[in-house]
Design a protein that fits this description.
Largest sheet: 5 strands, antiparallel
Shape: globular
Helix content: 25-40%
Oligomer: single chain
Number of helices: 5
Distance between the termini: 21 Å
Strand content: 25-35%
Radius of gyration: 17 Å
């Protein structure tokens, strides 16, 4: 597990479940109006999802006339969460691939870490699978895209380490985008 404690990983994964925070307060995502005040350069449209590790909002960049995803992580997080944020930013900044979500900007505002990322108009693989709308043929078209993106990341010295259906986004045209490089490990791509 490359130096990661299995119990720590399990605890982190369980954090998004009810009652799994063990004494820590659950992240309460900021209201849309508050997010709009923090990001005046964006038109905040709505929340796409939230969990124990943060929230994602759909927004529009009026100056570029494009939709984006705004990912916000909790304020005052542990040293580990700030480190995870910086690791994800560095990992995504190294990658430019059609099957990996592109980060446009990242930083901190009012104590909250944030990413402004490419908006993927679709759903994640878990939701697609649960809706029973995924045929075997469609699944076989998705797998090579995931493999191609992961191989590219590995070639660039980035190991995702958290591939799961929730981190694989599929747009309305069936194109795959891998997201959430928060547990990524950056390694020297030189095999020597």
């Amino acid at each position: 597990l490359a130096g990661l404690c299995p119990a720590c990983l399990l605890a982190q994964g369980a954090e998004t479940e009810a009652g799994g925070t063990q004494g820590r307060s659950r992240f309460e995502p900021p209201a849309l109006a508050d997010v709009a005040k923090m990001f005046p350069q964006l038109e905040v449209i709505g929340m796409l999802g939230a969990g124990g590790m943060g929230a994602v909002y759909q927004a529009r960049q009026p100056r570029l006339d494009r939709l984006v995803a705004l990912k916000i992580l909790p304020a005052g997080g542990s040293v580990g969460s700030a480190e995870r944020f910086n690791r994800e930013a560095r990992a995504l900044a190294r990658l430019s691939h059609p099957n990996i979500v592109t980060v446009h900007e990242f930083g901190q505002v009012e104590g909250l870490h944030f990413f402004i990322m490419e908006f993927v108009d679709g759903t994640n693989l878990r939701q697609l699978e649960k809706s029973s709308r995924l045929s075997p043929r469609e699944a076989l078209q998705i797998i090579p895209q995931i493999c191609d993106a992961l191989q590219y990341a590995h070639d660039e010295g980035v190991v995702h380490r958290d591939i799961k259906p929730e981190n694989v986004l599929v747009d309305r045209k069936g194109r795959v985008k891998i997201a959430d490089f928060g547990l990524a490990k950056i390694v020297d791509p030189d095999p020597e």
